[in-house]
Amino acid sequence: MSFNVLNNDIQEIEVADKSQELNSQIEGLLKSGKIVLFMKGNSEMPQCGFSANSVAILKHLGVPFKTFNILNDPEIRQGLKEFSNWPTYPQLYVNAKLIGGNDIITEMYKSGELQDYLKNN
User: Fold this and answer.
1) What is the average pLDDT across 37-56?
2) Mean pLDDT throughout 32-51?
3) What's the rounded mean pLDDT across residues 18-28?
4) Nearest 5 degrees, angle CA 48-CA 52-CA 58?
5) Residues of each annotated binding site for [2Fe-2S] cluster
6) Total structural domains in the chain?
């Protein structure tokens, strides 16, 4: 399967728009790209094994994605847990829809479901 991506287009989202209330900040981050991974650390320096694995899967698939380092923003870190009703990180979103954490990402990748989902959404 090919996504027609020549190079991984990985961008780090540095900061949320603090002029907005928390849910609006989160919605803005989600709308900043088709694929957004909220993680510990960044794509070049993940700060936990789960985040590293999730980044490795996305890089292997060759899809462009954005990351947000939740360790740099405690307000977003806690607020996103409540927003998504998902207690752990990383959290993968496609088109602002929560896909899941590392365990779900890995399971979907191994079954081919993640590749199909990314291709069709």
Assistant:
1) 95
2) 95
3) 88
4) 150
5) 48
6) 1
Cite the annotated binding site by residue number: 48
Q: Which domain holds residue 113?
A: 10-120
Structure tokens at 72: 């740099």
Q: Tell me the backbone φ, ψ of residue 95, rounded to 5 degrees.
A: 50, 45
- Assess if residue 101 is contained within a domain: yes
In a domain, 33, yes or no: yes
- Would you say residue 58 lies in a domain? yes
Under the banding of pLDDT at 50, 70 and 90, the label for residue 1 is: very low
Given a cut of 60, whether residue 37 has pLDDT beyond it is yes
Helix, strand and coil percent figures for the chain, each rounded to 5: 45, 20, 35
C-beta of residue 39 within 8 angstroms of C-beta of residue 89: yes
- At 3 the pLDDT is 43
User: What is the domain-level CATH number for residue 113?
Assistant: 3.40.30.10
Whether 34 is covered by a domain: the verdict is yes
